[in-house]
């Protein structure tokens, strides 16, 4: 029997019955008036997990990142990020549009930067040069194939930023995947970052939403910017309740997604139509195909396996909450017999 296995993204998940029930029972109010209890609870809960002072619930990770960049820069400044960075590649040119800031792109290893790479790219004080004011890291790195920073690796970057007066922002769309892989503790992140974006609608499985975490002053400013961008939401507690539920119930289970990814990657490495499987650390798999990737994507789709190409000969699989063991088994069987 053919089933559908959607490996396109970890954003495709639907709320579980228990999450839906939590949403239905949410205490709500007008959050623009500051009266939604569930939104306030989510913001405080997420902030406390990472040792930050305050949080801001936003409709998307793009918005939390863009607000953070706006908070931490002035027009004519420059930020430093890896060339694969989501903030640069997949946020519609928002860095330039929203903040009037230029971007210095570095070539990290699978999107991972070091202090040694960043240091020479910080502009000296000179009227010719844009003022470097911000570094943005991504953990896990989406386009790096779910690669992770450990806190050990982040520490020297944070020290460099402090020394040179730069702010450090984390695009933590998949921060909990990174924490499950590295064994680092969320609470230790506060020491290093000025801002952290956390997506609730990726592996954590909520329908909508991300939170920006920072100190109280930054979040106060961020709240004004969210309003300007049209991100002030009214009875958003229904959505925040899904986030609270996810933080309580869907963090530890990310390990299952990682196990599923390893199983799929192992099978892929044995397939004669696959030329290379990149290292798998979390829930994202990148692999190369001999034939054009889109041809393979179409062949897999005929068997109900949905995925996407990221390059001419490269395909991406992403595991998530809605991928069950029987989906993995089915996908492995199809992959093995694909020709
Ligand atoms: C998904 C994602 C975001 C935010 O995306 P939205 O679709 O706007 O929520 C930000 N950074 C990374 C690395 C992502 O994968």
Helices and strands, with pairings:
Layout: E1 5-6, H1 17-24, H2 37-49, E2 54-58, H3 61-72, E3 77-82, H4 86-89, H5 94-99, E4 102-106, H6 115-118, E5 131-138, H7 151-164, E6 167-172, H8 175-182, E7 195-199, E8 210-214, H9 216-228, H10 237-249, H11 254-270, E9 274-277, E10 284-289, H12 293-302, E11 305-306, E12 308-311, E13 314-318, H13 325-337
Parallel strand pairs: 1-11, 3-4, 3-5, 5-6, 6-7
Antiparallel strand pairs: 2-8, 7-8, 9-10, 10-13, 12-13
Helix pairs in contact: 1-10, 2-10, 3-9, 11-13
Bound molecules: pyridoxal-5'-phosphate.
Protein name: GntG family PLP-dependent aldolase
InterPro entries: ArAA_b-elim_lyase/Thr_aldolase (IPR001597), Low_specificity_L-TA-like (IPR023603), PyrdxlP-dep_Trfase (IPR015424), PyrdxlP-dep_Trfase_major (IPR015421), PyrdxlP-dep_Trfase_small (IPR015422)
Family: Belongs to the threonine aldolase family.
